[in-house]
Amino acid sequence: RGAHVAAYIQQPDIAVVLDATTAGDVGQVSGMQCITVQGEGGVISYIDGGTIYDYALTQKAFALARENGIKAQVKRMATGANDAKSIQRSGVGVRVISLSLPTRYIHSSACVAQLKDMEAMEKMIPLLHNQFAEE
Length: 135
Known about the structure:
By secondary structure, the protein is of the alpha/beta class. The protein has one domain (about 1-130): Aminopeptidase. The chain is about 35% helix and about 20% strand. The chain contains 4 helices and 4 strands, in the order αββαβαβα. It has helices spanning about 1-10, 55-65, 85-90, 115-135; strands at about 15-20, 40-45, 70-75, 95-105. It has a 4-stranded mixed sheet. β2, α2 and β3 form a beta-alpha-beta unit. The protein is globular and about 45 Å long. The two termini are about 25 Å apart.
């Protein structure tokens, strides 16, 4: 995978991984089985099927969202994985955080997401960059 090679070459201190994740707000899905909800902003994960995300970075991301009136939600189940796994394990290790877009029909040719969730993520990305560039 390219993420591992890129992280090995760049040797970043922190990586923000952008991805899509499963939106579970459909049909009979409820409670903890509803992994994310469309319309509630970008998804910030503590853990998924491949990575335990940096707790301090995750907390800072949620604080930035609150302080700036940006909707953000936590991923409710440790499912799926993304390139953060490869990045985190490269070199001597990299602190990683994931910001994901809640998406229906993920990994299909016609994923569906809400524009307001994309806009929330678009606002978060420069805030995360500015915050983490200082670390």
